[in-house]
């Protein structure tokens, strides 16, 4: 048995939650094996007895002792994933419990057909139903005529009105007609062209009613179509009596929809030899637990299909299988079925001529390009022949796969246009159902092709009681047939509209569209397939592991698969932190795609030149200018400074402060004149930026001015046992102090004294923060002595806050060590302590955390972000043991507050991201030793996350 891929397994998942739960079961399996088409294993759950899980790969079919009603359940999915990843060994024979179930399946499958009970319809019951349907349809026809006679503009178009007549059709046992009527309220409420749409639907229903009256006069095939559209039952047993069509059926499309908890799966198949289309439709109420008899997208099955009877047969049921499903890498496009727009329209016209109530027909278009124009989306051939895409579709994913190059598309052609289903490129069938979130940001501009019923619609709005229709504007074949129509004006209008609509849909002419230049090739290595599949899932889930993934992928300089570019751009739009690596991975194709999307266009960053370029610097957008100057500053600090100095008098707006802030990279005394000029700027943000950078130049004139003020305003008085700081700031700041930033930002620091805002305290903090730390070492001694100086209670907090600001700005680890040990007297103590903690040497940080026991878990959690990634292994082991102590406490006292995993969920989530990968075994061992089920699941989840990260990194190699 050929091992399945992970994509094949994930395609079987009934929903995303089942797949996510299945991935978390990795590591819980024992006794797993595979022999021929049998796969089995024991999965340890919360109970003492493990679940027995069996998969018959030939079906596939599933059996599990768990109580889940989903098929496949999470255990079956997990077992399949283990097998797909090569973690299930071949066995010489099938386990007993698996063999019993599989033998039973074989026995049932080979049961003689005579023993299989088939339902037979009672002729009297069938006739009674037909009489009831006929009466209901006649009532509906009267209602339709009244609507047109009175005028659509005057009739009741509320939900209640449509629901009333739809309910009557349900009572008349015509559910197909009722379903069509129930769609109309949405059409009226959401479409600007609702009169055309409503008239078209009324005309279609009237035509169906007229056909039903002559049910016994038409061919058997057309009779079956009429009955199907009305909603007569068609049991599967009866369908399977139809002649079987054996072929190698290729799965080219799959869509799952949900309406009022009824899930519907539509699978489009294409016969490799017969060149016939087939549509397999499955339903499941409550959850998408569909039968597992459909091969994965991109696979083919040698099997029999039984078509539902009809004039244009399309829907089918699976029959006998003749082997396991296998992948395919080519499509049967030849001279007989060339896959052109003309051939697709011809096939649709034939089907529509046979069954005028068809709403759509599958088409295969080879060597076509998706094109977005100001009038909407089109699918275009090499000679410019084009078909419009339906207004409801925004196929950005398709455009990303194509990149302006020819691809093969499976789509459904309807009266509104094409609905792309999948795209075939480089031997892969790519599902187009998973559209990017930004893909539906704007409606398609072009309208559906005109049906020449504008005058009929105008009459229908007013009502035939007020105006008679002018049928001279109808197409000639339709106008010639009007002599055969009903004499009643209202019904005559409906019949004219029905004929015109079918004629227009069957006689669509392709238009002409010019294709733009395609995307350039990206010569970088393609991201490995397993890594690409995992990245797509992580992007969809907004995984916390993405930063680590991109850091590991950066040295390889991969390019993303074309199908992933839209998802990368959509994520880059909302994630500024990962924007650059996301865009780099999207590469050339991503830039080409972003240039065509209005919401992605701003993501494009022009690459900065190595030497000053007048076009970029003088005429670029603010992000482009900032990026260019930053790159120049990094490569040639002097050239960047000279460029900014030259342009400084003409710069304005918020960008001015951002450009000045770039001097922080490679800051040197040569930058001092420009920063001094910034202190005189009219903009407050520019002055603040200059005042924050100048203190980093300890020998600058600014630093000397600040030190002189600090000496004058904060006197040091030495006592016998200690030093004391005496604060004497002036009540008002002079112009020079204001120029240096003192008092310019004091409003940012909200200190209070005596029940009122303390402006002096805010200015004091600014002064201390701007003062070089060596000044305090000079006047107070070493940092450990300085922090012990006596300070008036009013000024103690602002002085300490200023020291912390200076320490963080000047990156002084000696002061950080002392301030961290002394504690910071501020309301933001924990956040400030973490920043100080991050300045300590790594060994000191690890040693400090190892000295903390379980009573300090909150402190540990607050400081861990400053440790780096990944955490040292000794610290990881220490943290797991502390959490295990909480698990043991929870087992002893389940009712105690603070011992549950929920009380530490943020710490567990952080640990899953930053623990070293080697800690997975320790987490799994601890999980098995937990007596508390909640903690057992928490440690299992932790072990699963670490395994996930390990596999994630391995896939990038």
Q: Can you give a write-up of this model?
A:
The chain has 957 residues and is α+β, with helices and mostly antiparallel strands. It folds into seven domains: 6-113, no CATH class; 125-229 and 450-506, no CATH class; 336-435, no CATH class; 529-603, no CATH class; 614-681, no CATH class; 698-830, no CATH class; 841-957, no CATH class. The protein is built from 40 helices and 22 strands. Strands 16-15-14-11-12-13-17 form a seven-stranded antiparallel beta sheet. Strands 5, 6, 7, 8, 9 and 10 form a six-stranded antiparallel beta sheet that branches. It is globular and about 120 Å long. The model is unreliable at 113-118, 435-451 and 606-610 (pLDDT under 50).
């Amino acid at each position: 048995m050929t091992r399945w891929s992970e994509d094949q397994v994930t395609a079987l998942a009934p929903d995303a939650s089942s797949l996510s739960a299945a991935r978390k079961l990795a590591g819980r399996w024992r006794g797993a094996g595979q022999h021929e088409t049998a796969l089995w294993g024991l999965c340890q759950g919360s109970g003492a007895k493990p679940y027995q899980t069996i998969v018959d790969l030939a079906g596939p079919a599933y059996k599990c002792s768990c109580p889940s009603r989903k098929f496949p359940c999470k255990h079956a999915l997990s077992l399949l994933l283990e097998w797909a990843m090569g973690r299930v060994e071949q066995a010489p024979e099938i386990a007993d419990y698996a063999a019993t179930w599989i033998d039973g399946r074989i026995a049932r499958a080979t049961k003689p057909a005579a023993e299989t009970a088939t339902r037979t319809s009672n002729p009297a019951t069938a006739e009674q139903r037909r009489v009831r349907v006929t009466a209901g349809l006649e009532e509906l026809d009267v209602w339709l005529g009244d609507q047109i006679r009175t005028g659509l503009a005057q009739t009741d178009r509320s939900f209640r009105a449509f629901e009333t007549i739809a309910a009557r059709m349900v009572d008349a046992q015509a559910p197909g007609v009722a379903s069509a009527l129930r769609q109309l309220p949405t059409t009226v409420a959401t479409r600007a062209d609702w009169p055309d749409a409503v008239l078209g639907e009324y005309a279609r229903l009237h035509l169906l009613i007229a056909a039903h009256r002559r049910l016994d006069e038409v061919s058997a095939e057309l009779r079956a179509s009429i009955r199907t559209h009305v909603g007569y039952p068609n049991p599967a047993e009866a369908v399977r009596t139809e002649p079987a069509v054996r072929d190698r059926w290729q799965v080219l499309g799959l869509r799952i929809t949900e309406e009022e908890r009824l899930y519907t799966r539509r699978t489009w198949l294409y016969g490799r030899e017969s060149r016939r289309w087939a549509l397999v439709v499955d339903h499941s109420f409550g959850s998408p637990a569909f039968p597992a008899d459909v091969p994965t997208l991109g696979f083919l099955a040698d099997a029999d299909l039984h078509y539902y009877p009809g004039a244009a047969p399309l829907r089918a049921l699976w029959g006998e299988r003749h082997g396991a499903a296998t992948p395919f890498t080519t499509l049967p496009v030849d001279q007989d079925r060339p896959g052109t727009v003309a051939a697709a329209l011809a096939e649709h016209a034939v089907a529509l001529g046979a069954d005028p109530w068809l709403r759509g027909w599958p088409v295969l278009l080879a060597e076509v390009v998706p094109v977005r124009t100001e009038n909407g989306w089109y699918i275009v051939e090499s000679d410019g022949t084009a078909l419009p895409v339906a207004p409801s579709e925004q196929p950005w994913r398709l455009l990303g796969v194509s990149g302006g190059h020819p691809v093969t598309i499976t789509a459904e052609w309807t009266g509104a246009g094409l609905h792309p289903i999948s795209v075939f490129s480089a031997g892969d069938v790519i599902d187009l159902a998973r559209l990017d979130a930004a893909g539906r940001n704007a409606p398609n501009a072009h309208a559906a092709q005109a049906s020449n019923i504008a005058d009929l619609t105008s009459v229908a709005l007013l009502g035939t009681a007020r105006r008679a229709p002018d049928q001279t504007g109808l197409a000639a074949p339709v106008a010639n047939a009007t002599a055969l129509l009903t004499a009643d004006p209202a019904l005559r209008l409906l019949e004219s509209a029905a004929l015109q609509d079918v004629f227009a849909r069957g006689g669509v002419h392709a238009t002409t569209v010019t294709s733009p230049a395609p995307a350039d090739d990206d010569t970088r290595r393609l991201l490995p397939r397993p890594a690409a599949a995992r990245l797509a899932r992580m992007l969809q889930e907004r995984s916390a592991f993405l930063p680590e993934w991109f850091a590991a992928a950066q040295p390889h300089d991969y390019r993303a698969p074309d199908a992933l570019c839209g998802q990368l751009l959509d994520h880059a739009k909302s994630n500024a932190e990962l924007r650059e690596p996301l865009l780099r991975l999207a590469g050339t194709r991503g830039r080409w795609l972003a240039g065509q999307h209005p919401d992605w266009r701003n993501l494009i960053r022009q690459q900065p030149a190595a030497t000053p370029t007048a076009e970029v610097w003088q005429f670029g957008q603010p992000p482009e200018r900032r990026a260019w100057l930053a790159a120049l500053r990094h490569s040639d600090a002097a050239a960047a400074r000279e460029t900014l100095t030259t342009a400084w008098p003409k710069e304005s707006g918020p960008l001015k402060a951002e450009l000045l802030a770039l001097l922080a990279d490679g800051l040197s005394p040569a930058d001092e004149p420009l920063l001094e000029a910034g202190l005189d700027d009219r903009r407050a943000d520019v002055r603040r930026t200059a005042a924050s950078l100048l203190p980093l130049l300890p020998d600058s004139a600014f630093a000397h001015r600040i030190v002189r003020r600090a000496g004058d305003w904060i006197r040091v008085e030495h006592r016998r046992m200690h030093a004391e700081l005496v604060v004497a700031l002036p009540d008002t700041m002079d112009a020079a102090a204001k120029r240096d930033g003192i008092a310019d930002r004091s409003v940012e620091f909200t200190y209070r004294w005596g029940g009122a805002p303390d402006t002096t305290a805010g200015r004091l903090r600014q002064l201390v923060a701007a003062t070089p730390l060596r000044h305090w070492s000079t006047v107070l001694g070493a940092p450990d002595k300085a922090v012990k100086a006596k300070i008036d209670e009013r000024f103690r907090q602002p002085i300490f806050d200023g020291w912390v600001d200076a320490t963080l700005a000047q990156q002084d680890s000696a002061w950080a060590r002392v301030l961290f040990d002394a504690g910071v007297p501020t309301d933001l103590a924990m956040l400030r302590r973490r920043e100080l903690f991050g300045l300590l040497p790594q060994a000191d940080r690890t040693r400090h955390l190892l000295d903390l026991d379980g009573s300090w878990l909150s402190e540990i959690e607050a400081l861990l972000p400053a440790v780096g990634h990944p955490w040292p292994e000794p610290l990881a082991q220490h943290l797991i043991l502390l959490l295990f102590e909480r698990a043991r406490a929870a087992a002893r006292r389940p009712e105690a507050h603070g011992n549950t995993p929920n009380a530490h969920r943020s710490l567990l989530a952080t640990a899953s991201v930053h623990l070293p990968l080697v800690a997975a075994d320790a987490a799994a061992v601890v999980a098995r030793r937990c007596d508390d089920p909640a903690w057992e699941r928490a440690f299992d989840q932790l072990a699963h996350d670490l395994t996930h990260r390990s596999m994630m990194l391995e896939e990038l190699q």
